[in-house]
Design a protein that fits this description.
It is found in: Membrane. It is a multi-pass membrane protein. One of its GO terms (cellular component) is plasma membrane. By secondary structure, the chain is mainly alpha-helical. It folds into two domains: 59 residues; 70 residues, no CATH class. Helix content is 80%, strand content 0%. α1 packs antiparallel against α2 and α3 packs antiparallel against α4. The longest helix is centred in the middle third of the chain and has 29 residues.
């Protein structure tokens, strides 16, 4: 069961990443500045990710009003980790940038998977974690 979830999680992540990349490039070709192009592409990628993880990875029936805000929280946490880890590893530990990038490449998906599995889309056998 866990291996299937990890495989589906990876597949959905790859699809949403490819969608983001393609859309960001396409929006740029249409003349949109890179910042709003990236934001718009990220929003579409996030919708793909939410739908794919909800249906394919975790098979969740949790109401959207509960799951989606939690999904956003987990994604915001991923952004924080993607900033904090390289900063801590390069600035405070003086490690080479490649170490920071590789560590972040591992930590963000791991934190995302755990957050989605336990907090956003818990299985019926798991008690849902409360926000309060």
């Amino acid at each position: 069961m866990l291996a299937r979830k990890i495989g589906a999680f990876s597949l959905v992540g790859a699809i949403s990443t490819l969608a983001y990349t393609g859309l960001a490039l396409a929006f740029g070709k249409l003349g949109l500045h890179p910042v709003p192009a990236s934001f718009a592409a990220y929003a579409v990628g996030m919708a793909i990710s939410y739908t794919g993880h909800r249906r394919l990875t975790f098979g969740s029936s949790r109401p959207h009003r509960e799951a989606f805000p939690r999904f956003v929280i987990v994604n915001l946490f991923g952004i924080v980790v993607s900033i904090a880890a390289p900063w801590a590893l390069t600035v405070h530990l003086a490690l080479p940038p490649i170490v920071a990038v590789l560590t972040t490449t591992f930590l963000v998906p791991l934190a995302s998977f755990v957050g989605h599995n336990r907090f956003v889309f818990p299985s019926a056998s798991q008690p849902p974690h409360k926000l309060s």
